[in-house]
Amino acid sequence: MTQTLYRNLEKSDQMIGRTQPPLELPYTGGGEIIHLPAPTSVTIPPIDLRDAIQHRESRRSYRKEPITIAELSFLLWCTQGVKKVTTGEYTFRTVPSAGARHAFETYVLVNNVEGITPGLYRYLAIENQLAEVNRERGIADSMFQACLYQQFVKENAVTVIWVAVPYRMTWRYSERGYRYLFLDAGHACQNLYLGAEAVGCGVCAIGAFDDEAMNQLLGIDGETQFCIYAATVGKMTHRK
């Protein structure tokens, strides 16, 4: 932590004039691209914000019914939805981020979503699309194992995984940026919790996972990109 103190920081790459990294990593997988419906297409019954906050809790039991593709689009928009892109420099999104860096790529393991083949996808937030990453048989079991055999990971509709791209943050903030990554992950997950309350879904955040197994499953190196947080989503069984 001492390396991230202001008095110990080196000049950031932004300060010395190096080119800004991309706002979103390009998709180069060559798989199916799914165009998600507009987040506004999901019908949301009126819900009081105070009520949503009051009833928010981590839910590990889900009904065995799918969520709709419109609901998935809405929930992903809640966590990383892009409201505006400004001249290639910033994205303004539905969650706060230090300096509007938004240094995450969002992955989704689909188990039970209407109209989407089960498998691992990446959310292309600027385009509002899902890009196929891995549909191999057994991918859900691999996620279950990477999440340390927590049973509710096998029984949800989707698992959302946030992958940090640290250079997108440290380019501006040097070593201090590592602190901001973890703060920003909390912002994204809390929005998922509140958005899920609006569509009758439960969420459980996951910080207990095998880092190496998770990074390998996602096809990332654990350094220039690494899994920072995850959460399960499914139709809630009841509300207390």
From TrEMBL:
GO terms for molecular function: oxidoreductase activity. It holds the Pfam family Nitroreductase. InterPro entries: Bacteriocin_Proc_Enz, Nitroreductase, Nitroreductase-like, SagB-type_dehydrogenase. NCBIfam families: antibiot_sagB. Residues 53-235 form the Nitroreductase domain. It comes from Methanogenium marinum. CDD domains: McbC_SagB-like_oxidoreductase. Transmembrane segments: none annotated. This is SagB/ThcOx family dehydrogenase.
